Amino acid sequence: MKDTRFSGVGVALVTPFTTDDKVDYAALERMVEHVIRGGVDYIVALGSTAEAATLRADERREVLRFIVERNAGRLPLVAGVGGNFTRGVVEQLGEMCFDGIDAILSVVPFYNKPSQEGLYRHFSAIAEASPCPVILYNVPGRTGTNMTAATTLRIARDNGNVIGIKEASGNIGQMQEIIDGRREDFLVISGDDALTVELVRRGGDGVISVAANVFTERFTDCIGRAMQGRFDEADKAFETLREACEALFAEGNPTGVKCALSVAGLTADKVRLPLVEGSGELRERMAKLMAEYDLR
After folding, report:
1. How many domains in the chain?
2. Does some domain include residue 14?
3. What pLDDT score does 1 carry?
4. Which CATH number fits the domain that encloses residue 198?
5. pLDDT digits (tens, 9 = 90+) for 254-269
6. pTM across the whole model
7. Which helix (H) or strand (E) element contains residue 77?
């Protein structure tokens, strides 16, 4: 049976920063409350949208502890735990406190460009070490390596606590191959907001979303309709979101979503180098779209 806690809309929660480059915990608390009120089904902390790669180890621990505390068990919580050194990820899992954490999201190793066999062994080691369910994360645009459908299915077949994949390859054919070949309880989750309705139509299980940080109620309503099989309604609802979702990625993620969140008054428009804040043109475009479609 599928673990339905991770169906529907998960939000890839941002990490807000102050103007002096520290984690903004007051804004982070606002974000936790905002997405819960907006109707997301679960929270994903310390993913790529959270700029986890720019957080020190002590900051990652404290951000996760803070989110666990503020969430207070209200929604399922997924923690990003990944890297390009398998033993290092395994050691990190051995040192983590898993109180309040329901699953981990583990990204395909970046930079090394491992073979498919290397990916299989990497995730099998993580699955063996993890005390909670594992969701794989395939995002070749960031990692430089695409995990094939065959490798995903092999990992899932041989590791029962690997319960799903966040698929952000952008290849709907590859996603369909996983859907067609998966075991019955394996989740296929979109990593691309714009492809979610189509993926759900094909048998997918929802999305881990960037847009849900800011257009929370509208986006969760749209995907909720798709999850209920009301695809014509979902398609129509997404049309009012399409341009704004495209704008979120026009200058990269999380640059775009931080820009939108600042327009909405939820966080400062602040990212950490090597990322930079959105341009004036992006801010103007975002403000116009949010006003035009009433997305605040």
Report:
1. 1
2. yes
3. 86
4. 3.20.20.70
5. 999 999 999 999 999 9
6. 0.97
7. strand 77-80
